[in-house]
Amino acid sequence: MEIKPFQSSKIPCIHFGANTANGLGRIVSGLGKKALLVRGRSSLSRSGACAAIADSLAKASVEFYEWEISGEPSPEDIDGAVDANRNRGIDAVLSVGGGSVIDAGKAISAMLRADGTVADYLEDVGTRVHPGTKVPFVAVPTTAGTGCEATKNAVISKVGPNGFKKSL
Q1: Nearest-CA neighbor of 122 among 113, 112, 133, 111?
Q2: Are 84 and 111 in contact, with CB atoms under 8 Å apart?
Q3: How confident is the model at residue 16 (pLDDT cuts 50, 70, 90)?
Q4: CA 157, CA 166: separation in Å to the nearest integer?
Q5: How far is 163 from 63, CA to CA, in rounded Å?
């Protein structure tokens, strides 16, 4: 049984259907002309999907930078991505990957317009309240089950004796 393509108008807007990712350029260009593509280490490139996404963004005249996340995002991962991209005029963050990649993208989009480090804003870790401003965010989940594309929080982890797994 084939599921017919559909689009939801609720927030967040959800596009579903075969080859829906081919329209990423159109979706992202509606948010601006510069994007940060957050992705995993290798599976997106190996599958050929990264080239297709790059082509879609280029056809829509979206300049983009790439940021790689491997594993659950740490405060250092998020702060490093923000520091490297804060002055590029990023209009949208596009995450393509599993739950960790999507959580990283959500946190990066939130921190590009905030002062301080991501740890400053984490529940039970930081002491600051995030102002709620962020760069628009687009998620393309490549795995099933996490549901992180449908939530507003991002899970950030720190490994070690004082480790944690907390939400932004």
Answers
A1: 111
A2: no
A3: confident
A4: 6
A5: 37
Confidence (pTM): 0.89
In tens, the pLDDT along 44-59 reads: 666 777 788 899 999 9
The residues that bridge with 155 in the sheet, in sequence order, are 167
Q: What number of H helices and E strands is found in the chain?
A: 5, 8
The total number of residues written for the chain in this structure: 168
In degrees rounded to 5, what are phi and psi of residue 58?
Answer: -65, -45
Task: Determine which of 62-66, 79-83, 141-145 has the lowest per-residue pLDDT on average.
Answer: 141-145
Residue with tokens 């996340």: 69
Pairing relationship of beta strands 155-158 and 92-97 according to DSSP bridges: unpaired
The terminus-to-terminus CA distance of the chain in angstroms comes to 39
